[in-house]
Design goal:
The chain has 509 residues and is mainly alpha-helical. Helix content is 65%, strand content 5%. It has a 4-stranded antiparallel beta sheet, sandwiched between helices. The radius of gyration is 23 Å and the shape is globular.
């Protein structure tokens, strides 16, 4: 028995070292592609703005023809790589659950080129979703080249996706938290090892290329006092309601636009054409929204313009995402949040001192993001890392909790859960690149409040094909039997068919 235990311990230690080393490699690959994507989008943003403001009549006709060509190219790329549309986050989760098997090269090419073309056309989509999918797909390619096991590949794909977010926003801890709360939805130190390694490596590369700086150039000069709690609560309620409206509008557009009786490329082109004419008047309303947030930080806006801008921005994001184009919603959500903060400040300008204006931009961002994705810890950490300031953590946490509760009271599901259900919720759905049934392994950490603690494994309603292969408890590893019961803090190794992985993940997450 001692010899068997030693062999199991050796194999696990070896797995930990492999995951750490491969996580660094995956992080470097993900960081390179995410930074390249970010640089391209920055250049395209700048070029688009200058062209919009200087174009003559005949140049505008030429631009519209170019936009039609861009839309057609994006459509053809989506036909070639059908899982490259949208943000890519639901697709990464479906990949990890064994529902699909994305073709690596077509998905990367379609996401990268399609995202750039969409940004050139002014679509109000962000860089973070594509960076996550690009990082995950590169990690899958690296995993295949390294010939790792199925379980290791899942951990490395998760790590690559997390690294993509880390490089997109210079936020390594948020990348790891996002992988835990939104993608993997479970916790194990074997999962955290490659994620943290990949995020740190991707962020190191990002800092090396783009400089050591936070994502936003404006900081907090005066932190809200404790006496401002009422304003923080009110900000949380407003941002929560805006998040609820955002989710419902996005899901409606995602259902309605594909049903239009015209080809998808014409839908994309018509949206681009409308955005072209809007951009001629106000170019900041186009694109992901980073420049819009930075411009908002330059000074408070009056009530009417910021309200109109917020409504237009919501409509543009819904239309852009509903078209099926390649692009994410994280940055657009943050832009909507910053505008919500600016709107709230305008409403309360008679009671709120001007030096606290920046606080409400960040409070709006964290509140709306929390209500939309309903991952409060990740939302707080992301906005804090993007701001480069820890001083606002307490008011941000309070605002995030209020916004989260508002979303729950309004019975709004997390946006990525809803998008995943819309695309992959039907178990009978079949896709050309769906995975064949095969067995896979997964580690899970058992929480102390799990409802099944104290039950013997024989009393569980687990599928017959699911096997708990081993349990690590207080440094010892053993093979369970029907009379074994789990305890909080146990780390278990589950063996199951891929078709049951989603059910198993729901039980142990």
């Amino acid at each position: 028995m001692t010899e068997i235990h030693d062999k199991k311990l050796y194999r696990k230690k070896r797995l930990e070292w492999r995951l750490a080393l491969f996580g660094l490699l995956v992080g470097l690959a993900s960081g390179i592609i995410a930074v390249c994507y970010r640089l391209f989008l920055t250049k395209v943003d700048s070029l688009r703005t200058s062209v919009l403001l200087s174009a003559t009549f005949w140049q505008s006709i030429g631009i519209l023809l170019a936009l039609l060509f861009f839309a057609f190219c994006m459509h053809r790329l989506l036909l070639w790589a059908p899982y490259s549309g949208g943000s890519g986050i639901p697709q990464i989760r479906a990949e990890l659950l064994g529902k699909i098997d994305m073709a690596v090269e077509p998905t990367i090419v379609s996401k990268f080129i399609g995202g750039i073309l969409g940004n050139a056309g002014g679509l109000t989509l962000g860089r973070e979703g594509p960076s996550i999918q690009l990082g995950g797909m590169l990690a899958k390619k690296v995993s295949r080249l390294l010939d790792v096991s199925e379980m290791e590949e899942r951990y490395l794909v998760t790590a690559g996706a997390a690294a993509g977010l880390a490089a997109a926003f210079n936020a390594p801890l948020s990348g790891a938290l996002f992988a835990m709360e939104e993608i993997h939805k479970s916790l194990s130190h074997l999962f955290l090892i490659p994620c943290l390694a990949a995020c740190l490596m991707a962020n190191y590369f990002s800092f090396s290329v783009l400089g050591v700086q936070s994502a936003f150039a404006f900081g907090i000069h005066a932190t809200l006092p404790v006496t401002a709690l009422g304003f923080i609560v009110a900000m949380g309620v407003l941002s929560g309601l805006v998040g609820v409206v955002f989710n419902r509008g996005l899901l409606f557009a995602n259902r309605a636009l594909p049903k239009l009786p015209i080809p998808r490329y014409l839908v994309i082109f018509l949206i681009m054409a409308v955005l072209f004419f809007v951009g001629r008047q106000e170019p900041l309303l186009l694109g992901g929204g980073h420049a819009l947030i930075e411009d908002l930080a330059k000074g408070a806006f009056s009530l009417a313009p910021i309200f109109v801008f917020l409504l237009l921005r919501l409509l543009f994001v819904w239309a852009s995402y509903g078209s099926g184009a390649q692009g994410g919603i994280f940055l657009p959500v943050l832009a909507v949040g910053a505008m919500t903060g600016a709107l709230f400040f305008s409403l309360g300008s008679g009671w709120i001192a001007s030096e606290y204006y920046m606080n409400f931009l960040y409070l709006g961002m964290v509140g709306v993001l929390t209500a939309v994705v309903q991952a409060p810890l990740m939302s707080i950490m992301l906005v804090m890392e993007m701001s480069g300031s820890i001083n606002i953590m307490l008011p941000m946490s309070a605002c995030a909790i209020i916004a989260f509760l508002v979303a729950k009271v309004c019975r709004t599901e997390p946006i990525y859960e809803s998008l995943f259900a819309m695309s992959f919720g039907d178990p009978k759905a079949s896709h050309s690149d769906s995975k064949k049934e095969n067995m896979t392994m997964q580690y899970y950490l058992i929480p102390n409040e799990a409802p099944y603690l104290g039950k013997t494994l024989s009393d569980w309603d687990l599928p017959d094909s699911v096997l708990i292969a081993s349990i690590e408890r207080e440094g010892s590893t053993f093979t369970p039997n029907g009379a074994t019961s789990l305890k909080g803090g146990d780390e278990i190794l589950v063996l199951c068919p891929e078709e049951d992985l989603e059910k198993v993940n729901a039980i142990f997450s």
